[in-house]
């Protein structure tokens, strides 16, 4: 069965992710987002990087309060993919750019009557991410 595009929530304008090492994070996010057809980020040197889209923005950077970045327990940011191949390419790009596997390997998950092909990984700062397409 082929993947269907995931339905997004159009009411969220931006996601902001705190990181420990901005250069490493930019390398990681440029690599995984390229696999989803998203251009390299727009860098504000030494502060943050923006990945704008018509539907909102992803922003990575150092916390504004100067404290160390920390992960949100129970938080996951999921990216829309159009195929299992795109999910797998996203996962491999992340693993090859400083990310690390979490949860189960990429594969089919069924929850609440929804069947999806998912891959989970953590970015170099430990933030949990996923790429998914509906089956």
User: What proportion strand?
Assistant: 25-35%
Q: Indicate the structural class.
A: alpha+beta
| Pattern of helices and strands | EHEEEEHEEEE
| Backbone CA Rg | 15 Å
Q: Mind summarizing the main beta sheet?
A: 5 strands, mixed
Total helices: the number is: 2
- Measured as a percent range, the helix fraction is 10-25%
Topology readout:
Layout: E1 14-18, H1 22-34, E2 42-44, E3 48-53, E4 56-61, E5 77-80, H2 84-95, E6 100-101, E7 107-111, E8 114-122, E9 128-134
Parallel strand pairs: 1-4, 5-9
Antiparallel strand pairs: 2-3, 3-4, 6-8, 7-8, 8-9
Helix pairs in contact: 1-2
Describe this structure as you would to a colleague.
The chain is of the alpha+beta class and 135 residues long. The protein has two helices and nine strands, in the order E-H-E-E-E-E-H-E-E-E-E. The strands form two sheets. Strands 5, 6, 7, 8 and 9 form a five-stranded mixed sheet that branches. Strands 1-4-3-2 form a four-stranded mixed sheet. Helix 1 packs antiparallel against helix 2 (84-95). The longest helix has 13 residues, at 22-34. The chain is globular and about 40 Å long.
């Amino acid at each position: 069965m082929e993947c269907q595009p995931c339905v997004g929530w159009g009411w969220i304008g931006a996601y902001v992710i705190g990181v420990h090492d901005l250069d490493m994070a930019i390398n990681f996010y440029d690599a995984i987002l390229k696999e989803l057809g998203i251009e390299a980020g727009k860098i504000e040197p030494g502060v943050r990087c923006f990945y704008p889209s018509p539907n909102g923005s992803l922003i990575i950077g150092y916390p504004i309060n100067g404290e160390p970045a920390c992960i949100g327990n129970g938080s996951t940011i999921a990216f829309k993919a159009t195929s299992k191949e795109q999910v797998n390419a996203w996962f491999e790009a992340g693993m090859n750019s400083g990310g690390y596997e979490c949860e189960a390997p990429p594969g089919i998950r069924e929850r609440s009557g929804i069947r999806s092909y998912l891959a989970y990984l953590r970015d170099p700062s430990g933030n949990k991410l996923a790429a998914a397409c509906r089956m």
